[in-house]
Amino acid sequence: MSGRFDVVIVGGGVMGCSVAYFLASDPAFGGSIAVVERDPTYRTASSALSASSIRQQFSTPANIALSQFGISFLRSVSDHLSVDDDPVDLGLREPGYLYLATEAGADILRKNHAIQKASAVDVALLTPEELAARFPWLSVDGLVAGSLGLSGEGWFDGYSLMQGFRRKAKALGVTFITADVVGMDRVGDRVNSVLLDNGERLDCGVVVNAAGAKARRVAEFAGIPLPVSARKRCVFVFDCRDPLPACPLVIDPSGVWFRPEGAQFICGAPPPADRDPDTDDLTVEHDLFDDTMWPALAARVPAFEAIKVTASWAGFYEYNDVDQNAILGAHPDVANLLFCNGFSGHGLQQAPGVGRGLAELIVHGGYRSLDLTPFGYQRLLDNRPLLETCVI
Ligand SMILES: Cc1cc2nc3c(=O)[nH]c(=O)nc-3n(C[C@H](O)[C@H](O)[C@H](O)COP(=O)(O)OP(=O)(O)OC[C@H]3O[C@@H](n4cnc5c(N)ncnc54)[C@H](O)[C@@H]3O)c2cc1C
Asked: Which segments constitute the FAD dependent oxidoreductase domain (predicted)?
């Protein structure tokens, strides 16, 4: 399909579909919108391979604000995304996140707690005795504190959230095109059109880069460097014979995390830095489970001594190499190319707030609800990283 659209969104994952939905539902926007997605089966999209959890426990106030809006959106998702009165069921559960700390991590846990309290996050610092009383299945050996989210944290069906945005955007008149974006016509400080692999061309008013782990390639089409790489993250599903009542998403000081998933559990961990390249490969690395995750799991939860892995998968973090935070809005050299990238493992929960913010930027020329300017490209140019220390 050749033609002209006021807004062309490259990538139809949760971010692209969220931007499309918020734009199309803004009464102040009367323009045309196209979402170009190269693979509508979403086989390797991060939105389809996510752990789909939401937390309020960040170290950056702007991230906290995004998650505060995120949870309110998820709780009332049918009010926003239902089509023909069909409710949207995301299976949202809110058992909290539990960050555990040894002496080495206690200061940062307390510092983050102060930041979170200042942003009205419903979070409690617990002593080892309080942790043991609340979670009798947990070994508190070596721990000095735990930070438990008391509300607003948990998990949901992220794939259905993406499909909900997509379905609603379509119902609101957004055009979805199946094609690979392979180039852009840039003249001076503007992108005039987007080139597709089928030889067609879309003229555009604004382009949004929502290409997930492939965002750097798309930015290069306009001659802009983007420090986003594709980092493989493996998730393992396992059975445990004993129930773990009220189990939250637990982040062990080793970096290993786990949470219930239906009657089973899932877990993961960041790989060692020397095994974390930019990659196209999604082969599951089973030795990471055997060598790193299982020993940490069994040490933290004695019932995990006898677990059985039943499934596994790998997906890409769209990893911001500089400060592990989103990169939103334009680069000063190209006014009409907006970045929506670099979420580094927390994009699903941020999709509602980011989609709304980018729609405001397009329609009103600035943020109206949450101020997302801290995530602007300018910070990278100024060497002012917005470091997020709560990265899983
Ligand atoms: C294992 C794992 C666990 C995670 N856990 C969580 C979590 O618990 N909570 C959370 O909030 N987040 C989590 N995330 C992160 C979250 O899933 C992502 O941040 C989010 O899905 C990113 O959405 P996106 O739309 O930017 O990217 P994607 O979903 O990857 O979508 C980008 C789309 O762009 C398309 N595309 C790329 N290039 C082109 C092109 N040139 N032309 C056309 N189309 C193109 C791709 O095909 C893709 O469908 C996790 C991610 C992984 C991998």
From this structure: 6-361
